[in-house]
Amino acid sequence: MTRHDNSDAPEESAAPRLRVSGVSVGYGYAPIVRDVSLDVPDGALTVLVGPNGSGKSTLMKAMARVLPVSVGEITLDGRPIQATPTREVARQLALLPQGPIAPEGLRVRELVAQGRFPHQSLLRQWSRRDAEAVDAAMQAADVIQFADRPVSDLSGGQRQRCWIAMVLAQETGILLLDEPTTFLDLKVQVDLMLLLRRIAKEEGRTLVVVLHELNVAAAFADRLVMMKEGRIVADGPVESVFTPSALDEVFGLEANVLRDPASGRPVCVPAVEPAESVAPWLAAQ
After folding, report:
1. Is the distance from CB of 169 to CB of 189 less than 8 angstroms?
2. What percent of the chain has pLDDT over 70?
3. Which residues, 6 or more positions from 116, have their beta carbon under 8 angstroms from its beta carbon?
4. What is the pLDDT of residue 9?
5. CATH homologous superfamily of 18-243
6. How far is CA 157 from the centre of its chain?
7. Burial class (CB in 10 A: 0-12, 13-18, 19+), 51
């Protein structure tokens, strides 16, 4: 895959390509995200976590220009994203929403090829460059062996890799993925996150991922953003954000935070009563 060095970003400014400034957004008159500011670091893996209804997906949709903001501004390469033409945004930023569903009978290569649509026009139809981008994306996501199989025939983890291949084929420098590991076994989640981390590290792409599994988020994020009730409560390197006090404040979770001896990454272990403290209760039953 092509390495993205963010050379299209304005040289005169050190500002990140994707910036959220004082944004409020919601559905109708009900704000879900309130006064949120976030500078998305270039070439890194940023993970959003928070309870259900905390505004993670709403914020991501606003960053992808799917939802309009009511207050504040989101900029892409220094330009207001709402004022940027849709096709131009799609050439710079790709979104993988929650639970995408492929049409019945659609084959993997056909699905991945949909990522090339932003590069098509009346004057530019399908080309060898498009075919090469699709093959490279399938190779990167390790689904090339399924190219001619219907997407519906694959396992959950394999299908997710196909969707990730589709957004890779879009060849954007920024990828937004909303809960790409939901309902997958832990091993499959880890494999997918290893793929996403490699995309950020080796290809220089900027990734923003919404996750539910806290320890998976802590294991792979370069930057961790915790949200609650539409606001950012904690934001920064994993080591400074993934703390017992933050987990309690955001999730109401009493937990101990330990260090993985191999990676040094934090791991949360829910606080439970010692076995002896519940023994009398069990004996009385």
Report:
1. no
2. 89
3. 126, 130, 133, 134, 169, 170
4. 42
5. P-loop containing nucleotide triphosphate hydrolases (3.40.50.300)
6. 16
7. middle
